[in-house]
């Protein structure tokens, strides 16, 4: 397969994984949590790297998951003291954890090969050459395997625990009242967000991750009244952003991950404008119909 | 009120605090079976907090709650809950039938999806509150009163013995008010125990068999004809009669 195709597939897998799980952040009006987690997993990555002295996927993912859940947990702990509001609590926790990560990198700088540019903008263009080699045999880019695995995990998680995610997102108090452990499902969701963030992070960078967690879900939210349809549409929006961004980047000779995020934003803006105009027209029509029914003609 | 271990709800020595400020102080009562009970008190009296504390949604500083003599955790299926309408985001992408079906989620296994029977029960409950025609409506397209009826239908699907309702009459239209009253009567005829947070002193006497007057402490609890006196209301509303009459006037004007 051509390297270009691998890049495209990596982009699509990252966008769709982030899109479907991020839809729940959009619905919980918790969009900034994705942003926060994408920063606060940094100490987890550094610690995993320092402990295992490798950039293997598994320790990285575990380190990230621990700090992702810690972000959600510490935020709630601060919030529950009722001395700090929730967004304030989130701001305190993720900046603190990110700072710890930065300090760790500074202390062990000579041992760590973590490049800021790489973390921010990602290296999606290089993913085809970072291949999974098992027993001397090459099985294609590592990123495709990791992101494919994360996507499957997300889809299985959402399909299996759909009713729990639905009731806990809509009405957490009712969930607890009928005996569903709302807090457990909150942390389960945060674990999946952390895994997704860290898997996508490595190959496509922080900017694209934050964009893809929120923008496709927000786009889908505008287009439907049904949760199941919203999840499917968020995946579609993710695919369009990835493919569109890939060709836009080629055409403009710009950053691939950056272009994908831009296309996602343009798509959201287009849908928003379309929805607003559609609602205006429908309202005007309704007014005209009502006026006609009452025998009034407009001057 | 003897110490009957089988009281539908027994609240003992209950104290709840926000930060270090207590909102409920040393609350002690047993609900009588099969009665419609109104929970009345001024703003900030802790009415909603009491309901949430009974439902296990608030940390308790002290005391306990028993449902038919057992901890709530073991008897959740016996308690139906109607939260305040403002507590959720009505723009959430679900329809009325979806919301009502959520009342059944607690009975399902970890991996089970709602069955055909669950949806049929949900439909029947929507019908009971006069909302069958709106089953497939997205919930943001419903009026406030219709949303309230959806919440009531959801509680009905729980098929509980005890119902706790947080301000079901708040901001609803006349049709919904009537539908709720009918529903309360039906629940009473089935020997259900219903505790309703209520704001309107003008109708409290008419709607409820029993009244609980609350202002951080339990002021009075008993049959309406014994409890609903000027003296008791004055004690509940802080002895400021003009405030009380102001509130009554305000309610009357609505």
Overall body shape of chain B: globular
Overall geometry of chain A: globular
**Could you say what the CATH topology of chain B is called?**
Rossmann fold
Order of helices and strands of chain A: HHHHHHEEHHHHHHH
Please give the number of β-strands of chain B.
Answer: 10
Broad CATH class of chain B: Alpha Beta
- CATH domain fold name of the domain at 3-211 in chain A: ABC transporter involved in vitamin B12 uptake, BtuC
Write structural notes for this entry.
- The complex is a heterodimer of chains A (299) and B (254).
- Chain A has 299 residues and is mainly alpha-helical.
- Chain A has a domain at 3-211: ABC transporter involved in vitamin B12 uptake, BtuC, CATH 1.10.3470.10.
- Chain A contains 13 helices and 2 strands, in the order ααααααββααααααα.
- A two-stranded antiparallel sheet of chain A has the order 1-2.
- Chain A is globular.
- Chain A starts with a helix and ends in a 6-residue tail after the last helix.
- By secondary structure, chain B is of the alpha/beta class.
- Chain B has a single domain, classed as 3-Layer(aba) Sandwich (Rossmann fold).
- Chain B contains 9 helices and 10 strands.
- In chain B, the strands form 2 sheets. Chain B has a 6-stranded mixed beta sheet, sandwiched between helices. In chain B, strands 2-1-4-5 form a 4-stranded antiparallel beta sheet, with helices on one face.
- In chain B, β4 and β5 form a beta hairpin.
- The interface between A and B is medium-sized, with 29 and 34 residues.
